[in-house]
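fold-stage: in
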Amino acid sequence: MALALVPLPVRAVVDETTAPALTAITGAQRRLDATTSSRELARGVAAHVEMANRLFVRVQEPALSAALAAAVSEAAGFAAWLHGDMHDVGTARIYYRLAIDRARRAGQGLLAGYMLGSLAAFEIEGADPGLALPLVAQAREQVGVAAHSTPRAWLDAIEALSLAACRNDGRAADSALLRAEKTIEKGDPSVPPPWPWVYPFDHVKLAGYRALVSVRLGRASDALAAFAESLPAAHLAPKQRAMIMLEVATAARQDGESSRDGYRVDEAFQLAREGLAVGLTYSSERVVERARRFRHGYAGPVTSCVREFDGKLRSAVA
């Protein structure tokens, strides 16, 4: 008789509070990314994505379904970022595809465009940057005629980087950067960007992309000048800063090699070693892989700075 009074467990109710709760969890996990290794975060984030997706599949009411789809997209996008940082390319792509699909199911064009643009940026860093151009084109279709300058300028900058990385097309890349600059100038800086963008894409961020484009095109002095413009005003998490340090190191190495300035080359390797150290501290395979590419791009004499860097790089796989 006593057991008959114990209430049976019931399936969790999905209501208008569910999607905001899921989004809040994703936000809390994102904040941990600045101080926690991706490998430590990934398992919990993957479980969160799986749970959120199960809730989405179960719900029938259209309004709740759309809100849950958007929450799944945001969580899956973060999971993709973490697996990209772990250099788990296949899993990262799976999560990006899920994020894009759920954003479309949510009817959120800006969110779908953001996820497509993020996947394009991911592919540029990988082995096949040519995949980025069609992804940028799809992202533009999703974004449409956005009222705010940030989505359009951001996609122009990603296109420029893709053109530099996969085609070595400096003229087309410069044209895309110029479009982005004009779009920013026409925008109203007092108007905040639309979700899911948190910060506006402004001249400082554009300078960062201009620097990356210059590195890909081998314009070392242009890259260093653009980095000098963008870095002091940039608020970057440690892993992001490490990636930028390696890009700056690449530009400095290119500059030293072209001018036969051995001191400049040593300076580049010292900076790269510092960036690699951050990557090792945070167990970022993405940073370590970028450091490997930095080293593979150098065929000059092996100085003491180069040997120190090589020792640090070996410790990443020891």
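fold-stage: in (second)
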Amino acid sequence: MKKNEVPQDDSALRDFTREVCYVKNEDGTYETELSSGWEAKKVALDNAWEDIHQRIEEAKLKVLNQEKSILYYLMELNLMDISVLKGYTGFFGFQIKKHFHPKHFEKLSDRKLQKYADAFELSLDELKNYTLRA
């Protein structure tokens, strides 16, 4: 690819990162050039973000319907999964799944809640009083 042919299509990551491509310059030698992305990558990223937003909305509905605790929503909102949350909190996966149930969440001690608050970069009070809007 020639230097002037490097794709510069806007993608979801355009404000965060660029990709290094190896290109031939006018002398025929290779050098690096930054690319903001290309159409195929843009479509894939847009689809991935659409899926993420859908998961967040589904988690929100489950919390509003009292099927899940706020921990479930915050996990999705922060682009985490149970294994990541395990790493941040030190809880086992089965404990986290149990804490996703509203009746179990309500019984958690401040010490346990603080671990979740730290994982989500919230204060204990913010976690306890987190409210969702429909």
